[in-house]
Write a structure and sequence with these properties.
single chain
């Protein structure tokens, strides 16, 4: 298995707060809008390195469903 990036996402109605530990142990945080444009930016940010990304969601109600449905099936996101 190649390098794996770990990401935790706190999901709310309007924003996605993200903390990432990259494969080189570097930590980063960012905030994205919880809409189609924000999801696209988040996927690009998560996958900017090489290897897979393991994502854990802390969801609030149904606000994570759209994000999850957009990302399921992407080869680099687990």
């Amino acid at each position: 298995m190649g390098k794996v990036t770990d990401a935790g996402i706190d999901v709310s109605k309007d924003v996605l707060d993200v903390a990432v530990r990259r494969a080189d142990a570097r930590c980063e945080t960012a905030r994205f809008a919880n809409d189609a444009g924000g999801h696209k930016k988040l996927v690009g940010w998560l996958t900017k390195g090489r290897g897979a990304v393991r994502v854990v969601l802390e969801s609030t109600g149904t606000y994570s469903l759209t994000w999850r449905s957009r990302c399921i099936g992407r080869a680099t996101l687990r």
